[in-house]
Design a protein that fits this description.
Strand content: 25-35%
Radius of gyration: 20 Å
Shape: globular
Mean pLDDT: 95
């Protein structure tokens, strides 16, 4: 079969022939893959930098963590791959899949799950979002950030504040439901002052952070208390695009009612993952099929994987490989 294969970590995937995967037990089934999104998770695993990276193998490995495909009976499903999915065929667990509604395209369906997991899981299970709350999304110009805005609104957020560096994309987030935008291109003092003013008028309840690094330090400085009673803030780190570590003052932790947690592979319970597949993803697929979610994607071909793997998606688009 044709596949996107990494032979050595750190190198780009190659369009190559690869052995067909073989079903090993009664819980595994073969699917014909139709579409797979290129995510930061997949890039991190291919480079060996993500904590869930594949072990080195002599014959290489197929990239891709999930995808949309057809079962032997013609049923179209989304599923996580037991092996790599960016190939003509893949093995999935027959107990962990989601049938797709008719009116959603393969590409749109493939683009959603990583972003939904990267936003809905944090909102529901780490932040325990309630209707009427104020949400700050740090690094909202990427695809997952764009989805997070819409999902937070769907879950009842009253006000959404977003940050980012791309001025054009930041402005477009207002059309997705953002209420306030804060540019990360400002100097530190101006950024902190702007966020402090917003927080004083409408206290922030939830922070979803896709950047971490220095932007996280600025946000934490902005919500630092002064000895008065403070609003409880649930801060959830989901990504580290701006750096994997920060300096965190003890004074910040002591001056504000702050809950700091993370959301990602390994942090979710089995019950939460079951809900992702049984409730959350089916709901989001249906919303997309009804055009109630705006999805910003670009379709590319598997044969072009070497050319497009390191391509920077414009304006927060998600690249989806059509197979």
């Amino acid at each position: 079969m044709k596949a996107a294969v990494v032979y050595k970590k750190g190198e780009m995937p190659k369009y190559a022939d690869f052995a067909d995967p073989i079903v090993q037990n009664e819980n595994e089934i073969l699917v014909s893959v139709k579409a797979v999104a290129i995510t930061n998770l997949d890039k991190g695993k291919a480079s060996g930098k993500h904590y869930s990276s594949e072990k080195d193998t002599q014959n290489g490995f197929v990239v891709g963590s999930d995808g949309v495909g057809l079962l032997e009976n013609g049923t179209r499903v989304y599923a996580r791959g037991i092996n790599g999915t960016m190939a003509e065929k893949a093995i999935i667990d027959k107990n962990i899949l989601v049938p797709l509604p008719d009116r959603i395209s393969d590409a749109v369906a493939a683009s959603l799950p990583n972003a939904v997991a990267g936003s809905a899981m944090a909102l529901r299970f780490r932040a325990n979002i309630q209707k009427g709350e104020t949400v700050l999304i740090n690094g909202a110009t990427g695809f997952t950030g764009q989805m997070a805005i819409q999902i937070a609104k769907h879950y009842g957020a009253k006000k959404i504040i977003v940050t980012g560096r791309n001025e054009k994309t930041l402005q477009s987030l207002l059309e997705l439901g953002a209420d306030e935008i804060i540019s990360l291109k400002q100097d530190d003092e101006t950024f902190i002052a702007q966020l402090k003013e917003i927080n004083s008028k409408t206290p922030i309840d939830i922070i979803l952070d896709y950047l971490w690094g220095h932007p996280a330090e600025l946000i934490l400085a902005a919500i630092k208390g002064n000895g008065s009673f403070t609003n409880k803030v649930r801060y959830v780190t989901i990504g580290g695009m701006a750096g994997d570590s920060i300096q965190l003052s003890s004074g910040i932790l002591r001056s504000v009612d702050l809950q700091l947690s993370g959301s990602g592979l390994g942090s979710w319970s089995k019950a939460e993952v079951r809900l992702l597949f049984s409730e959350i993803l089916p709901e989001m697929f249906l919303l997309a099929a009804q055009n109630k979610l705006k999805v910003n994607i670009q379709e590319v071909k598997l044969i072009d994987i070497e050319e497009i793997w390191s391509k920077e998606a414009l304006d927060g688009q998600r690249l989806v490989v059509i197979i």
